[in-house]
Design goal:
Blueprint: H1 10-32, H2 49-53, E1 142-143, E2 152-160, H3 165-174, E3 179-183, H4 185-190, H5 192-200, E4 204-207, H6 221-239, E5 245-248, H7 257-265, E6 269-271, H8 285-295, E7 300-305, H9 312-327, E8 331-332
Parallel strand pairs: 1-6, 2-3, 2-7, 2-8, 3-4, 4-5, 5-6
Helix pairs in contact: 3-9, 5-6, 6-7, 8-9
Length: 337
């Protein structure tokens, strides 16, 4: 009897289909990173709860020292300058680009230390005026009194001859007053006619150096000797035969043992003062007059200026001081020698 071939049962066909499905499922899952198909029905399994929550599992944690790990900056590095206060942003690892530092709030570089505001400086002195000389009391060999003493006064004028010298000579002549002119050597050499006029009127001369260097007491011996000796020679030549120079007044009152010895070796005395109205600074005519009237004592030596700048205030003050001196019973004398 002819036997008919038997068809495979349905379960066998399903079993082959199931195997194909499972094989495909595994491939898709591997590609998508999903869990493997593990149910009897072959349904895809969702990712683990840790994956969906965003919390890494211990296996996913980054190792220490990667870019995600915060580092404490080293003092002195470009992250935090020494003493800069709060740390700046932490530097990244060598595998990641460095994070730029934000600019400081004040615009000052992180590495810069803020500096205090500069202290305002005093205005520059008038270059045409000599520096303020200190007062002298006649200590040591420096003279600060008149030759006769008593109710006498010695008027002295520094830094000439200058444009104001002629006006001062006219005023002195009106009151029959005598004065001593402490001259800059190069000024005397430039104006010998005025030097001769001073001598002809009965006034006396004083050496005040060649160039008026300051501080005079700091000069080395050779320089001081030149300034004193050369100026004296210039004044003697300007005055002509018979001229005498009896004193040396150091610029700024800068006397010391060395220049006093040089002065004495040339037959001159070191001349200081006892009254200083600071007329060189041009404080105003009333201030000059007031200073002389307050500081003067009998036998005093008054320091004023006929050169070294505009001496209009000195001339105006002298117009008031000369009649005042006469009214106070003063007579005019020369400094002690």
């Amino acid at each position: 009897m002819h036997r008919t071939a038997r068809r495979p049962s349905a379960p066998n066909r399903l079993s082959r289909s199931r195997r194909r499905l499972l094989t495909g499922c595994a491939a898709v899952a591997a590609a998508l990173g999903l869990a493997a198909c593990g149910t009897a029905s072959g349904a895809l399994q969702p990712p683990s709860a840790a994956a969906t929550s965003g919390t890494p599992s211990p296996a996913d944690a980054r190792p220490s020292g990667t870019a995600a790990t915060a580092l404490t900056p080293t003092p002195g590095s470009d992250a935090v300058p020494p003493g800069a206060g709060s740390p700046a942003a932490s530097p990244s690892s060598p595998s990641a680009p460095a994070k730029p530092h934000p600019p400081a709030a004040t615009g000052t570089p992180l590495s810069a230390t803020p500096t205090p505001p500069a202290t305002p400086t005093a205005p520059a002195a008038d270059p045409s005026s000599p520096a303020a000389p200190p007062p002298h009391t006649g200590a040591g060999t420096v003279i600060g009194s008149t030759a006769s003493g008593g109710r006498t006064v010695a008027l002295t004028f520094d830094d000439g001859p200058g444009p104001a010298t002629g006006q001062i000579l006219d005023l002195l002549a009106q009151y029959h007053a005598k004065a001593t002119f402490c001259q800059i050597g190069q000024n005397a050499a430039a104006n010998p006619a005025m030097v001769k006029r001073i001598l002809a009127a009965g006034h006396r001369l004083c050496d005040h150096s060649v160039h008026h260097p300051q501080p005079f007491a700091k000069l080395p011996h050779d320089k001081a000797a030149y300034e004193i000796t050369a100026a004296r020679n210039m004044i003697l030549q300007a005055g002509g035969p018979g001229t005498e120079v009896g004193w040396f007044r150091a610029p700024g009152g800068g006397f010391n043992a060395d220049n006093e010895h040089i002065t004495a070796s040339l037959g001159m005395s070191s001349l200081g003062w006892s009254v200083d109205p600071r007329d060189w600074a041009r404080p105003g005519t009333p201030a000059i007059v007031s200073a002389v009237q307050k500081q003067l004592k009998p036998g005093g030596v008054v320091l004023m200026h006929d050169g070294g700048g505009d001496r209009g205030q000195t001339v105006a003050a002298l117009k008031q001081l000369l009649p005042w001196l006469v009214a106070q019973g003063y007579t005019f004398d020369f400094p002690a020698a």
